[in-house]
Design a protein that fits this description.
alpha/beta; 603 residues; single chain; 6-stranded antiparallel beta sheet; 7 helices; Jelly Rolls; Immunoglobulin-like; 34 strands
Length: 603
């Protein structure tokens, strides 16, 4: 009887929480919106590149209030918001704008599992846009700026034995500030989208020992048959021993150990399995921290043996290479926006869906466009075999745009604070994504958006991570630095510049528009570079462009990016509708055209 009563109570709690929440607004939504359970929102472990078994998810319904900037946090709240969906989104259940003169305050209570007694407790945020201040039981535990990277606070000293209160205050000036904000603007139109304020990735707790592994920095070397694993600890001492085991399934492949905070260099067999889009093989890793023979901490991870580089082909053209072989990298411009969740996919299945469809279309690469995704997105790229070009989200003002020529003018000077903000956030993005095998190219600037000190930024990026290629400014003001010259041309492919010393790529083209009634963000206002009236017409145009691109490969193109994966707000030039309910072009014909291009160097 007691078990029946408990089950009934839990069912009532779920029904009650659903009754208190509903999606805001009447705009289109994805099929996954209906699957949301407010008591179990994005329940998957949020950091699979470094996983522990024990954790607690804090997603769900929180209290919220919008206050004037700088005012005290009130006792009374406006209502409930579904975390981790931004307040402007439908799935937040609120659908409000928060401008630069206001702040958004969240609050919720939580209890710790009894098994965590005696453990240190970490509070993790996947991402919060933009400035976050955090209190636990009215004790301030930390602050963070940056809308695209995870951050963590040790909250152990602030915790109570029973119930605990968590408060988060967020300020986000969107395009009224100099900080990176990507496509978000106060007045959305055309290629500019709705602001995203506040928590937009999973919030979670994790118990650890007094000394623990804080981060893993994993570097493969296929030329010398090594995998290097640097375990960064919260507290380092000379008595620490780090052990790494590398597995192929259940089979132990190799091991390595280090002390004194040194990286572990693990020898790999000469016939080690290499990662590629055709065969995205991942080795499993078990990383242990020991002290005095005692196991202190253990995390599970994964790694791939792969190499990104450039090299000249038989005709002297500089090509992008994967594992020392030329590979034409071709993929869509992927904005990562959702009609119901904005920056946040409604479910983990939805997050994976866009990547799987990219593979189904025959692409081998994604250009992640001026946004950073949750950790699980990159893990899916690792598992499915998609190379990622990672953009830095743009911010601040633009210099004069002279994209069709090598730039010989004067760049706009950022303020000292703006420059420091860019450098801090770019470094944090590179740090949090470093160990993902899929990341092949860093893109510090898109076009001329916020572009400054380009040669200096590119040189720092290249030195900080010499294992990846650097695309200085995709379609932007061009400098003779980095590994790539990146052209943008709409709608058809065209090569109007060529660099004999670097790889020449077409970083954006296409934008074929098709309006589909009942799948539009705004029925009476939509936009595309070119527009057609049927799927066949749009597909015919795509195939025509693909054939043009194929013929330009011999002329010197080494990669290309098609705009774009999905419609986004009033843009209707996606391969899929914004709600992902319709694939707009003929998938089979697109796959055939794309496969021919991706395999061009295999003929």
């Amino acid at each position: 009887m007691r078990r029946i009563l408990l089950s009934a109570f839990l069912l009532l709690a779920v029904v009650t929480s659903r009754a208190q929440w509903a999606p805001a607004g009447e705009r289109i939504k994805t099929q996954w919106s209906a699957e949301l359970n407010t008591s179990n929102v994005l329940p998957e472990y949020p950091r699979p590149i470094m996983e522990r078994k024990d954790w607690k998810n804090l997603n769900g319904l929180w209290n919220y209030v919008v206050i004037d900037k700088g005012k005290a946090i009130p006792q009374k709240f406006d209502g409930q918001i579904l975390v981790p969906f931004a307040i402007e989104s439908s799935l937040s259940g609120v659908g409000k704008r928060v401008d630069e003169n206001h702040e958004l305050v969240y609050s919720r209570n939580f209890e710790l599992p009894s098994a965590w007694k005696g453990k240190k407790v970490l509070l993790h945020f996947g991402a919060v846009d933009w400035k976050a201040d955090v209190w636990v039981n009215e004790v301030k535990v930390g602050s963070h700026t940056g809308g695209y990277t995870p951050f963590t606070f040790d909250v152990t000293a602030a915790l109570n034995k029973g119930e605990n209160k968590l408060v988060v205050k967020v300020w986000d000036p969107t395009d009224k500030g100099y900080q990176p904000h990507g496509k978000q603007v106060s007045n959305p139109e055309g290629i500019w989208y709705t602001p995203v304020t506040g928590i937009w990735q999973t919030v979670w707790l994790e118990p650890v020992a007094e000394k623990y592994i804080r981060n893993l920095r994993i570097t493969p070397d296929i030329d010398n048959y090594f995998l290097t694993v640097k375990a960064e600890l919260n507290i380092a001492s000379i008595s620490d021993l780090v052990e790494v085991g590398i597995y192929d399934g259940d089979k132990l492949v190799s091991t390595g150990r280090s002390i004194n905070g040194e990286a572990v260099e693990i020898p790999m067999p000469e016939d080690a399995k290499l990662w590629s889009p055709e065969s995205p093989f991942l080795y499993s890793l078990k990383v242990s921290l020991k002290n005095g023979g005692k196991l202190i901490d253990r995390v599970e991870s994964y790694a791939a043996m792969r190499k990104y580089s450039t090299g000249r082909d038989a005709n002297g053209i500089v090509r992008l290479e994967l594992n020392n072989k030329p590979l034409f990298q071709f993929g869509p411009l992927d904005q990562g926006w959702w009609p119901d969740g904005l920056y946040t996919a409604p479910t983990d299945e939805a997050l994976r869906y866009d990547i799987q469809k990219t593979k189904d279309f025959g692409f081998n690469m994604i250009r992640k466009h001026i946004k950073v995704e949750p950790a699980r997105w990159y893990t899916y790229c690792d598992k499915l075999g998609i190379i990622v070009w990672q953009d830095m989200p743009s911010g601040d003002r633009n210099p004069e745009w002279q994209s069709r020529n090598y730039f010989n003018g004067t760049e706009r000077k950022r303020s000292e604070a703006s420059e420091a903000c860019y450098r801090k956030e770019w470094k944090e993005i590179m740090d949090c994504l470093y160990s993902y095998p899929c990341i092949g190219t860093w893109v510090p600037f898109n076009e001329a958006w916020g572009q400054f000190k380009t040669p200096e930024i590119v040189e720092w990026t290249k030195q900080y991570d010499p294992t990846r290629l650097v695309n200085p400014a995709s379609g932007g003001n061009h400098y003779a630095c980095g590994d790539i010259l990146d052209l943008h041309h709409y709608p058809e492919p065209k090569m109007f510049l060529y660099d004999a010393q670097r790889a020449t790529v077409l970083g954006e083209f296409g934008g074929i528009g098709l309006v589909l009634k009942d799948h539009l963000w705004e029925p009476n206002r939509n936009w595309g570079y070119v527009q057609f009236n049927s799927s066949k017409e749009a597909t015919d145009e795509y195939v025509k462009y693909a054939d043009m691109l194929y013929r330009l490969i011999d002329k010197g193109f080494s990669a290309a990016v098609y705009t774009q994966t999905t419609d986004v707000e009033v843009e209707v030039n996606g391969l899929m509708t914004y709600d992902r309910k319709v694939i707009k072009l003929d998938e089979k014909r697109v796959n055939e055209a794309n496969t021919r291009i991706c395999n061009v160097f295999n003929k």
